[in-house]
Amino acid sequence: MSVHAHVFKGLEGVYVIDSAICLIDTEKGALYYAGYDVRELVEKSSFEEVAFLLLHQRLPTKSELEEFTSRLRASLNLESKHIETLRKHADNKDTLTMLAMLMVLEGGGKKGGDPGDLEAAINAIAKMGSFFSTIIRIRSGGDYVPPRKDLSFAENILYMMNGGEYRREYVEILDDLLILHAEHGVPASTFASLVTASTLSDLYSSIAAGILTLKGPLHGGASEASYAQALRIGSAERVPQWVESMLAEKKKIMGFGHRVYKIYDPRATVVKELIAKHAATMDSEAKKLYEITQALEDYGQKVLAPRGIYPNIDLWTPILYRMIGVPPDSFTAFFAVSRIAGWAAHILEYWRDNKLIRPLHLYVGEQPRKYLPLELREGS
Ligand code: CMC
């Protein structure tokens, strides 16, 4: 049997869906959600508005936004069953896996496949926020703090995470990061969500698949890896020697490179602008991290850009994450809090014209052969 087929390793260059949710302009270096430039959304919009935009592919009216915001806020509330589960698993240091587990439990094995299930999407987005904040709160020895009706989504995340206290200037940073990370086409995590959704599994389980796929350092785990890398480097002066030794060993520099962008990641530009805007609130840790990161960007670009490898968003996000008080082992979990809006939007969109995702493999093993009993095998 001879098969003429080409295997697209890593699905590189393969279009897998039609989608109206996001456009990545890889020539200009720009990102649009349903036609709106993410830079403009970061500047003028709120996470609530962007979540609505992704789910509906249009901006809400004033009354629609009010209704959406209040539904989202109501779903932030946790019940005693959630809090008990959170307490029981609080010593599990893997925040991302905890989020996936809590999502699956929240879904309760409901049926999937309903493209109009906005209620589930809104609940999942909100619960991801309150699960995340409460995991951090309980781990630091505090108790669950219910959300407040007068606070925005970003404010409630900080409020619940810190047990009531938070700095006003961090709200803008957090809201902007949520917007910036809300959607990005079909990276591995979104694809995993779609693979799961395509079997008509439920929305929560499909999201859990996305959460767990975000974990690895080649994708969402890159921010934590990039932070650990900066700590290992230790000082801006050590950067050139460190980069050279990594490249000599054929190892990757975290926070550099992207499957889609062969230019500077436009999201990294926005993150850098945010850092500059809030530079006055940087503590000594953030300042040191900034110096190392800037040196890494400068030297790394010098040696890697000629190969189309540029800094990506995760080179810079650790500085903002640390500034707003996200523990390093929860960086990727924070990414999941924002990306869930994109995952949910893609799942609902896919269900409008569902088709089981089931690719083929090109067999390269032995041709059919006869089974030999154990005693007749060579060496027996
Ligand atoms: N440092 C050094 N070399 C690199 C890097 C890097 N960060 N990224 C790619 N390369 C080299 C790689 O070694 C390979 O070289 P060669 O052809 O000599 O074997 C070549 O570039 C192609 O690399 P690849 O990994 O096959 O290409 P890809 O399109 O699969 O890469 C990537 C995308 C993100 C997996 C890769 O750039 C990488 O591992 N980067 C570091 C991890 C990282 O920062 N990830 C976050 C991505 S942005 C956030 C998100 O959207 O998830």
How would you describe this protein?
Strand 2 and strand 3 form a beta hairpin. This protein has 380 residues and is mainly alpha-helical. It has a 3-stranded antiparallel sheet. The chain is globular. The chain folds into 2 domains: 17-213 and 328-351, Citrate Synthase, domain 1; 222-323, Orthogonal Bundle (Cytochrome p450-Terp, domain 2). It has helices spanning 38-44, 47-56, 62-76, 80-88, 95-107, 118-139, 153-162, 168-180, 188-197, 203-214, 222-233, 239-248, 266-277, 284-304, 313-323, 331-351, and strands at residues 22-25, 30-33, 36-37. It binds carboxymethyl coenzyme *A. Carboxymethyl coenzyme *A is lined by residues 10, 184, 187, 217-220, 222, 252-259, 309, 312-314.
Number of strands: 3
Q: How much helicity do the residues have?
A: 40-55%
Average residue-wise pLDDT: 96
Could you say what the CATH topology of the largest domain is called?
Citrate Synthase, domain 1
Q: How many DSSP H or I helices? A: 16
Strand order of the largest sheet: 1-2-3
Strand residue content: under 5%
CATH architectural type of the largest domain: Orthogonal Bundle
